[in-house]
Specification:
Chain lengths: 175, 304
């Protein structure tokens, strides 16, 4: 067994893990943060995306023993004091959540994007979430939500109301 | 055969193999080496059951699928010297554990060898590229490796560290077969070196995939054209057991069309594609001339 000290969402933790324990298993089974999901387990789907020292990575393909001293951010770190984050609220408002299984990973990829690039283009958003598979939404509502969050962040962007109208307009056009 | 099943990597499992278990299998130990000497010693002592571990994006999948079952993983990311990435007058030096996003985003590297930056960017997803390393991509020795063709066309060599010192091996001699390299027990790749490219050298990378998103190559190829000697070098992946470097093609005094014809002829003569989950041999034979022609045209027209 290995002793690993790390920070999760700003809080220090020390855990005992086997060499074979993945970071994903450590987060879910040792730290009981079950927001991070396992989809494929082989790095294809992105459901287990977390930020490792700020960089989005798939936690299923990292060993827990490797992250000694690292800082990890998961979906549980998004809401602060019971208040949803801009991205979480935007995903709800834009209807970007259906079954919800991909959403934690999707939001962490979006968070990494907005941290590095507060005003992403559509193409940059698509590239940032290319490693996150969603089998429900068809992605456009997710892209809308990330654009909204970029605007709601106090920067230039379409803004919540405008994007909601955009989504409604599309729904009306589809109907 | 259901069409949808062709797009998923799990179908490459041999028929009859058991479904994946939910956790990384096996009972391997893990050691984080801090010096090259320590890492090589551990690998030597472990024989075939100790494996160098870097990004883990291929190795952990193989362990999970029961394809490889090491007793020891020697993590080499704690060795500072393996993180070098320098682009200078003496060429490029790339430490083997440099991750692919760093290669894609390094301005000095992109300026000198855009084919490699583009190839790195074409591999997997942003999350995986934050972990997957250039050394891992080389040592995996896949026929479809995206990083090998761009490095072949500029004459890259590898520094291979062993317990008794290091040796330099031309990349062209490194892969000895499908997923096989010339690495001996106790050895690991520490650096990739690209010699200085003559002024005006242009490089390009092309990749044919089944889908626009992340996917392995059905065919990939890279080219380098050096105006000073007029030589065009082309390397093709996924059409031979190890990526294929064609003999240099003379462009001086030849039209783009004549050069493309010659390049297509040589490519067709030298490839030996097979049918696999990503494409048929016939498809590869059909698409290679088109891609080679596209590559030659873009390099000889000067890209822009």
């Amino acid at each position: 067994m290995h002793t690993v000290s790390l920070r999760i969402n700003g809080n220090p933790h020390t855990i005992q893990v086997a060499s074979t324990t993945t970071l994903l298993d450590a987060i879910r089974d040792h730290l009981h943060l079950t927001g991070t999901k396992e989809g494929c387990g082989i790095g294809e789907c992105g459901a287990c995306t977390v930020l490792l020292d700020g960089a989005p990575v798939t936690a299923c393909l990292i060993l827990a023993v490797e992250v000694e001293g690292a800082s990890i951010e998961t979906i549980e770190g998004e809401a602060q004091s019971g208040q949803l984050s801009d991205l979480q609220q935007a995903f709800i408002d834009a209807g970007a959540v259906q079954c919800g299984f991909c959403t934690p990973g999707m939001i962490m990829s979006a968070r990494a994007l907005l941290n590095a690039n507060p005003n992403p283009t559509d193409e940059e958003i698509v590239e940032a979430i290319a490693g996150n598979l969603c089998r429900c939404t068809g992605y456009s509502a997710i892209i809308d939500a990330i654009k909204v969050a970029a605007g709601a962040d106090g920067r230039e962007g379409p803004g919540l109301r405008e994007a909601a109208a955009h989504t409604e307009g599309k729904a009306a056009a589809d109907a | 055969m259901p069409v949808f099943s062709r797009s998923c990597r799990r179908d490459e499992r041999p028929a009859g193999e058991k479904a994946r278990t939910p956790n990384v299998r096996g009972s391997f130990e893990y050691i984080r080496a801090t010096t090259l000497e320590e890492a090589c010693q551990l690998l030597l002592e472990g024989g075939g059951s100790a494996l160098a571990y870097a990004g883990g994006t291929d190795l952990l999948v193989d362990i999970r699928n029961g394809i490889r079952s090491p007793n020891l993983l020697v993590d080499i990311k704690g060795i500072d010297s393996l993180h070098r990435l320098e682009a200078g007058d003496d060429g490029l030096t790339i430490g083997s554990v440099t991750h692919l996003n760093r290669i894609a985003e390094h301005a000095g590297l992109r300026g000198r060898l855009p084919a490699l930056a583009d190839a790195a960017l074409s591999i997997a997803t942003y999350q995986l590229r934050n972990r997957a390393t250039i050394g891992g991509n080389l040592c995996n020795a896949s026929p479809a490796s995206d990083s090998i063709p761009p490095l072949l066309v500029v004459g890259a060599s590898l520094r291979i560290q062993g317990v008794d010192g290091f040796r330099e091996v031309p990349l062209d001699c490194f892969c000895t077969g499908v997923k096989k390299t010339c690495l001996e027990p106790g050895e690991l790749v520490s650096e990739i070196h690209v010699p200085p490219t003559p002024p005006g050298t242009r490089t390009a990378f092309l990749k044919q995939q089944r889908i626009r998103g992340h996917d392995l190559a059905v065919v990939n190829l890279a080219g380098a054209l050096t105006p000073r000697d007029g030589l065009l070098r082309i390397a093709i992946g996924s059409c031979t057991p190890t990526p294929l470097l064609l003999d240099p093609i003379e462009t001086s005094g030849h039209s783009i069309e004549a050069t493309a014809e010659e390049a297509v002829r040589r490519a067709a003569e030298n490839i030996s594609p097979i049918d696999d989950v990503r494409g048929s041999a016939a498809y590869r034979r059909a698409i290679v001339p088109i891609l080679v022609r596209r590559l030659v045209e873009s390099l000889m027209r000067g890209g822009a």
